[in-house]
C-alpha cells in the first residue's frame, strides 16, 4: 500500500471514530477540537473558545490521522473562506475527489463558503461526507449544528473538493 493510500485509510478510520461527538453545552461551541486548536489543551470542554469548529475539526482530524499540514493551512482552516482561498491558490482543487479529500460548502451558491468537512464518496447522486459542527438532520443548522455527523449532501451545495493528502 502506498503512503498516500495508508494516510487516507487512517484518516477515514479516524473520522468514523469521531461521529457523534458533540459540543457541550449545546450551542456553546465548546468541544475538544477547539480546545486542541486554540488552547493545545486536552481538558475537553473546559477551555474551548466559543468559535465555530468545522475547520478546527478538519485540522484536528488531519493531525491525529498523521497527516502533516503546514502552518499557513493550519491558520487558515478555522475560517472557511480563508481555507478555500489558500487551497485554491495552491492548486489543490480537484474534480475527481478521493475519500479523505476536503470538501467546502456554499449552501446558498452565493460565493461565500460557510462550511468544511471531508469527502467519503458518492451514494447515487449524493455526496457522502463526515463533517464537524453540523446538524444530525436537515432541519438544524448545517454550519453550526454542534455535532460530528456523516451526511449525504447535494452536489449543488458544494463549492469544491481539495486534496490535502
Supply the key terms.
alpha+beta, endopeptidase fold (from Nostoc punctiforme), 6-stranded antiparallel beta sheet, 5 helices, 22% strand, 165 residues
Structure description:
- By secondary structure, the chain is an alpha+beta fold.
- The protein has a single domain (3-162), classed as endopeptidase domain like (from Nostoc punctiforme) (endopeptidase fold (from Nostoc punctiforme), Alpha-Beta Complex), CATH 3.90.1720.10.
- Helix content is 31%, strand content 22%.
- It is built from five helices and six strands; from the N terminus they run H-H-H-H-H-E-E-E-E-E-E.
- The protein has helices at residues 3-18, 32-39, 54-64, 71-76, 80-89, and strands at residues 93-94, 102-105, 115-123, 126-134, 147-154, 158-162.
- A hairpin with a 2-residue loop joins strand 3 and strand 4.
- Helix 2 packs across helix 3.
- The model is unreliable at 41-45 (pLDDT under 50).
Amino acid at each position: 500500500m502506498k503512503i498516500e493510500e495508508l494516510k487516507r485509510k487512517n484518516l477515514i478510520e479516524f473520522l468514523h471514530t469521531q461521529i457523534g461527538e458533540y459540543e457541550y453545552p449545546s450551542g456553546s461551541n465548546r468541544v475538544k477540537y477547539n480546545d486542541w486548536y486554540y488552547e493545545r489543551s486536552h481538558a475537553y470542554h473546559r477551555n474551548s473558545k466559543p468559535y465555530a469548529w468545522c475547520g478546527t475539526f478538519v485540522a484536528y482530524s488531519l493531525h491525529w490521522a498523521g497527516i502533516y499540514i503546514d502552518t499557513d493551512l493550519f491558520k487558515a482552516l478555522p475560517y472557511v473562506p480563508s481555507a478555500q482561498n489558500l487551497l485554491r491558490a495552491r492548486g489543490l482543487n480537484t474534480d475527481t475527489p478521493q475519500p479523505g479529500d476536503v470538501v467546502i460548502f456554499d449552501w446558498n451558491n452565493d460565493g461565500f463558503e460557510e462550511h468544511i468537512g471531508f469527502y467519503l464518496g458518492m451514494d447515487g447522486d449524493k455526496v457522502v461526507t463526515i463533517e464537524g459542527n453540523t446538524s444530525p438532520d436537515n432541519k438544524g443548522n448545517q454550519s453550526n449544528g454542534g455535532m460530528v455527523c456523516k451526511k449525504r449532501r447535494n452536489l449543488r451545495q458544494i463549492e469544491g473538493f481539495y486534496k490535502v493528502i
